[in-house]
Specification:
The complex is a heterodimer.
Chain A (H helix, E strand, L loop, with lengths): L1 H20 L8 H5 L18 E6 L7 E6 L4 E4 L3 H27 L4 H4 L4 H9 L2 H13 L2 H20 L7 H6 L8 H15 L5 H19 L49 E6 L10 E9 L1 E2 L4 E7 L2 E7 L8 E4 L2 E7 L5 E5 L9 E4 L2 E4 L1 E7 L7 E7 L22 E5 L7 H10 L3 H8 L7 E7 L4 E6 L14 E2 L18 E3 L5 E4 L21 H12 L5 H8 L5 H11 L7 H8 L9 H22 L12 H10 L18 H20 L8 H5 L4 E2 L28 E3 L2 E5 L7 E5 L17 H5 L4 E2 L13 E8 L1
Parallel strand pairs in A: 1-27, 3-7, 6-22, 11-19
Antiparallel strand pairs in A: 2-3, 2-27, 4-5, 4-21, 5-23, 5-24, 7-8, 8-9, 9-10, 10-17, 11-16, 12-13, 14-15, 17-18, 18-20, 24-25, 25-26
Helix pairs in contact in A: 3-7, 6-9, 11-12, 16-17, 17-19
Chain B lengths: L3 H18 L4 H12 L7 H23 L4 H8 L6 H28 L1
Classes of the chains: A alpha+beta, B mainly alpha.
């Protein structure tokens, strides 16, 4: 008894220790996390001093010493004596600032989140792998390794990351590892391929085929084609109309038989991302300096740590500056002494679904081209934190994986069940070779050669050189299709519906030095309908592209600063057309209507007119379409595009769609629907923000935020940022997406390009560093920072704060 | 003859050394070992450990943020959630240290008395 009594405190002490050493559900390990000697307290980083500091580090694997200098924004400038050391150092410094992000994003891409968060991550993980993310990365990794330079880059980059991981003690781990209570694993080169494949997931996995088939089944082909036209009423295509075609097109395959698939029904909610980008290059005859200026702002989900990481890479044969993506070697968008390049996404249709007919429940054979063919099986094993492994079998037809079997529930509403996926992201590819060559390109010929290696996600590569050239290639691997092939779900038994090869790369849409003196892209249609091949029926709305082209046509004496103004342009070109049309229908003396009448059509941060207009458009779309196109949540459909709605208001006031079919015995008119949606708009805004006043300011309503990668981590996010713009605005800042990296470069004959840039975040991924989010305010104000482009490691600059020498 | 003040000082100094070189829970275990070896009285043993832990953890946290200020404590005080109140975060940190050292000190003293 006495013994038991005396060991009770010991048992309590042990229980407390074990309890606080482990995480319980979402509760972090309090002991480890709060210990001032092990926990988050020591992740606080000293704010940089003005004093120059020097450091030497031993890194195994280096062939020669590497010098790295950091500027006042904590951007590393790496000077190496060979490619191998350059990429090893790039891996090392990127991991030093972004290790957790690199690993988390590749875990996500590889369908391994449940290893960190447990069972709740499984549905997302299974979706990733069923879509073939790991399969695609393996294919692409095979392709990349065939280029010896890319192989060196991948392996050295990986070695650099691992050198950093090996140098970390447990107490030095990045904050997120401490919060989620796990440790980094060694990096492998295939993770870089996974990261690049994930960009296809982000940018080229949009698919409306299922929703379009549901519309086809409900309303027939005529309505589907009328409401979902294959070219917008208003467009300003990327390749200007009339650009001569400099190739002889290959024959277009015959169209498959008309097919009306089964469609399907699902219930899970899904959000449409608002992702797009802008880029342009202005020729020297329109600029004050006489040299071309190039600008780019890719729009992605705004996140912390930032999706981009700036770096300057210098070695024999290369001196390039720009943004990299943590997880892959090379600069992705940037400039060197001679050229500059940037990217925006191409919204072509590179993902199709084939309805599969299996022979029996074993699913070992499927019907295609008049015979039973064998499926291939791929086993995926999921490690789940705190649970037994989960083993999943994925069935592949020759098209690709059957993402969900017909009895399963899909992870997203736009994914059909019982269909095989044909997707460009599953092809063997060599994207790294493109970036390696672009980093070293000296002129248009080098640029065009570099693009030949790029498959997916297809990008509009804008280009400018100090020889005076500007150009734009809509570039990637595009399936050779018959017109509209893959707009709807396709018949997996019909061989005529298969993809029949690819458009020759040299036939991809392109333009060099057009007469108008500029090239540009903003995710709109690549070409007008005269282009000989079919790329897709639906692209991003044309507003940003039309506004950019309108401004660039009008602008003369262009400077870096005037282009900075264009990147931050808040003009609402949609409202210019739509608002007067809407006003015709509203008879009211409402105060809100008065504000709209006086509105200057700018989505400025403080604008109240912008809040009313944008909310009205949303309400009107819902009032017009949702009775017919969102009637049954088990049969998801698309709404017709805004462009189609504007056409309806302008020319089809008596269309059947104006009537609300849910009100029996009543027939609504266009004017009634527009008026009612205006009243609903005012009511909603009053309900959310109170009576009209400063609380209705556009930025307060829109709530642009840069959020930490872990969902719900508001404490590590920046919310309610005062920035204007919107999805159809050149300054494309929405609630969760926006310009993720803005940069402008003016080239120079003497090899001294002037460059400016900013992104909504900072170089460091550590929430305890001043460089975690130090650029967000600059970004929100629409300002840019001058970028430091150094000639050599020994060049002196007042902006250099720290120097590190790495040696073996 | 040890006074409680001296016991507390010993626990804090050895605790800090354990914290610097060993895993976090070594700060608790050292208190148990010292209480056993130095024959801490059972009476007040929890309080002695608790005060040591409170001062060691809360004080070290305060010192770290004082000598190297950053936005991190505010962010963590928002996350945990303590409404972004860093003073409260020192207290919570101190309480965790206090309870840890308190139990271990009591455990060591009890075992010795047995």
């Amino acid at each position: 008894m006495k013994f038991i009594k005396s060991i009770i405190p010991l048992i309590l002490a042990i229980l407390v220790t074990i309890g606080w050493d482990n995480s319980w559900g979402t509760i972090p390990p309090f002991g480890k996390l709060l210990s001032p000697y092990h926990g988050f307290w020591i992740n606080a980083e000293m704010a940089g001093s003005e004093e120059m500091s020097e450091e030497e580090l031993n890194i195994p694997g280096l062939l020669k010493p590497v010098k790295i200098v950091y500027d006042e924004m904590a951007i590393p400038h790496i000077f190496a004596e060979n490619d191998h050391d350059l990429f090893l150092a790039q891996g090392y410094v990127t991991a030093k600032d972004r290790l957790w992000q690199m690993e988390f994003q590749t875990h996500f891409a590889g369908g391994r989140i449940s290893e960190i968060v447990g069972e709740k991550g499984l549905a997302s993980d299974q979706f990733q792998r069923r879509m073939g993310s790991v399969y695609g990365a393996e294919q692409s990794f095979d392709g990349m390794k065939q280029d010896p330079q890319a192989k060196v880059a991948l392996e050295a980059y990986s070695d650099g990351i691992n050198a950093y991981i090996a140098s970390l003690s447990e107490r030095e781990l990045p904050l997120e590892y401490k919060l989620l209570n796990y440790k980094p694993e060694p990096w492998t080169p295939i993770k870089s391929a996974l990261f690049l494949k994930n960009m296809s997931f982000v940018l080229a996995s949009g698919t409306d085929d299922l929703k379009m088939t549901n519309i086809l089944r409900q309303y027939g082909r005529e309505v589907a084609e009328d409401l979902f036209p294959n070219y917008p009423f208003e467009e300003s295509p990327i390749i200007p109309s009339g650009t001569p075609v400099d190739f002889k097109p290959v024959p277009i395959p015959a169209a498959p038989k008309d097919f009306i698939g089964l469609g399907s029904a699902m219930q899970t909610p899904e959000k449409d991302p608002n992702i797009g980008s802008n880029n342009w290059a202005v020729s020297g005859n329109k600029t004050v300096s006489g040299m071309p200026i190039l600008a780019n702002d890719p729009h992605l989900t705004l996140s912390l740590p930032s999706i981009w990481y700036q770096v300057q890479l210098v070695a024999p044969g290369v001196n390039v500056y720009g943004s990299t993506m943590p997880g892959t070697p090379n600069v992705i968008t940037g400039f060197n002494k001679n050229i500059a390049w940037g990217v925006t996404n191409v919204g072509s249709d590179v993902l199709d679904w084939y309805q599969v007919k299996f022979k029996d429940a074993s699913k070992l054979e499927y019907w295609h081209d008049g015979q039973w063919k064998k499926t291939k099986l791929r086993i995926e094993t999921f490690k789940i934190k705190g649970k037994k492994d989960f083993v999943d079998t994925v069935f592949f037809t020759h098209h690709g994986p059957v993402v969900y079997l017909s009895h399963e529930k899909a992870f997203k509403t736009n994914i059909p069940v019982g269909h095989a996926l044909r997707w460009i992201a599953h092809e063997k590819s060599q994207e790294l070779t493109t970036f390696y060559r672009l980093n070293r390109a000296k002129n248009y010929t080098d640029y065009a050669e570099a693009l030949r290696y790029f498959s997916a996600p297809a990008q509009n590569f804008v280009f400018a050189s100090n020889e005076g050239d500007i150009a734009l290639w809509v570039n990637g691997k595009f399936p050779l299709k018959s017109k509209l092939q893959g707009k709807y779900l396709m018949d997996g038994t019909d061989a005529a519906a298969d993809w029949k090869g690819f458009i020759p790369q040299a036939h991809n849409p392109h333009v060099k030095n057009p007469a108008r003196g500029f090239v540009s892209s903003a995710n709109q249609f690549s070409t007008d309908p005269s282009y000989p091949y079919y790329l897709g029926w639906q692209y991003a709305p044309s507003e940003r592209g039309r506004r950019i082209n309108e401004r660039l046509s009008a602008m003369q004496k262009v400077t870096i600063d005037s282009l900075r103004g264009l990147q931050n342009d808040n003009f609402n070109i949609r409202a210019r057309k739509l608002l007067p049309l809407l006003m015709r229908s509203v008879k009211s003396n409402n105060q809100a209507l008065g504000v709209l009448k006086g509105w200057n059509l700018l989505n400025a941060p403080e604008s109240i007119g912008a809040t009313i207009f944008e909310t009205w458009v949303l309400n009107l779309q819902a009032a017009l379409w949702d009775d017919e196109f969102a009637a049954d949540e088990k049969v998801p459909m698309n709404r017709p595009a805004i462009d189609r709605m504007i056409h309806l208001i302008e020319h089809e006031a008596n269309a059947r769609w104006w009537d609300n079919v849910k009100t029996k015995g009543q027939k609504e008119t266009m004017d009634q629907i527009i008026s009612a949606s205006f009243q609903a708009t005012v009511d909603t805004l009053v309900k959310h923000h109170g009576p009209m006043g400063p609380a209705w300011a556009w930025y307060k309503h829109k709530q642009t935020g840069v959020r930490h990668l872990i969902p719900g981590m508001d404490a590590l996010s920046r919310l309610n940022i005062p920035i204007g713009g919107g999805g159809s605005i050149v300054n494309a800042a929405t609630t969760k997406t926006g310009p993720s990296w803005r940069f402008i470069v003016e080239l120079s004959k003497t090899g001294n390009p002037k460059a400016y840039g900013v992104y909504p975040g900072g170089q460091s991924g550590n929430p305890g560093s001043v460089h975690y989010d130090d650029l967000i305010d600059t970004w929100a104000k629409g300002e840019l920072r001058p970028l430091l482009f150094l000639e050599s490691a020994n060049q002196s600059s007042s902006r250099i704060r720290k120097s590190i020498t790495l040696s073996n | 003859m040890q006074s409680n003040t001296i016991r507390i000082i010993i626990l804090i100094i050895v605790g800090a050394l354990a914290g610097l070189y060993l895993p976090w829970y070594a700060m608790g275990i050292q208190a148990g070992v010292l209480a056993y070896l130095l024959k801490f009285p059972v009476k007040n043993s929890f309080s002695i450990g608790f005060i040591s832990g409170l001062l060691l953890w809360g004080g070290s946290a305060w010192w770290l943020n004082f000598s190297n200020p950053s936005a991190l404590p505010v962010r963590m005080a928002t996350l945990l959630p303590l409404q972004g109140n860093v003073a409260l975060l020192y207290v919570v940190t101190g309480l965790i240290g206090g309870i840890l050292l308190g139990f271990w000190t009591m455990a060591g003293a009890r075992l010795r008395q047995n």
